[in-house]
Design brief:
The chain is α+β, with helices and mostly antiparallel strands. It is built from 7 helices and 9 strands.
Length: 198
């Protein structure tokens, strides 16, 4: 198990464009994301999210646990495994196989015993990787159902979190972009646009 610690900031489209103009992206990823749960929302109701992500020839199964947010920092447990293209195609038709690809908490595995997983929905994401002033930023342009776009900046934190956050603040101040912490995850926005948010 890993612990994901990151800062997520909401961006308006003009702010996203301004960042693109001033920061050179090193890598551009086209991601397809699909989320799975039981029909009754067992995972969602307990703060968990199960995702299949594909980017070119790379595919991952990820289970993320309940998130805590403090001072704009999102922290949550994460279980992830890379799978083959063949396996990715298989789990789309047999989602329960996703749980065999990752090591997940016994409590979750037991509660999903004899449960059927279904696809809740998905979204496309264009992720630009940017290295600037010693930090690695990810700029996301996400297309949700209904052809709705949202923009976000993510900074995954290391043991040097304070210095990385200070650097991010300086970069944004230089470009006159305010620090607006994301109130929802992309999955939560997906559920909102699908009319499934609680």
């Amino acid at each position: 198990m890993a612990t994901e610690r990151e800062v997520k900031l909401e961006l308006a489209c003009p702010e996203y464009e301004r960042l693109l103009q001033h920061l050179e992206s090193r890598v551009v990823e086209q991601q397809e994301n699909q989320f799975f749960d039981t029909a009754g929302g067992l995972l969602l109701n307990n703060g968990w999210a199960l995702r299949l992500r594909s980017s070119g020839e790379h595919h991952w199964v990820t289970l993320k646990g309940p998130s805590t947010i403090r001072d704009g920092i999102h922290e949550r447990p994460e279980f992830e495994a890379r799978i083959t293209r063949t396996a990715a195609e298989q789990v789309k038709h047999h989602p329960s196989q996703m749980l065999t690809a990752i090591t997940c908490p016994r409590s979750i595995r037991e509660r999903l015993t004899d449960q059927t997983l279904v696809c809740v929905g998905g979204f496309s994401n264009e992720r630009r990787h940017v290295d600037v002033d010693g930090v690695h930023l990810e700029l996301d342009r996400t297309r949700f159902p209904g052809n709705v776009y949202r923009y976000e900046l993510e900074l995954e934190l290391s043991e040097h979190a304070n210095e990385e956050q200070a650097t991010l603040e300086r970069i944004l101040k230089r470009l006159s972009i305010p620090m607006r912490f994301s109130e929802k995850s992309k999955y939560q926005w997906l559920l909102t646009y699908l009319g499934k948010a609680s």
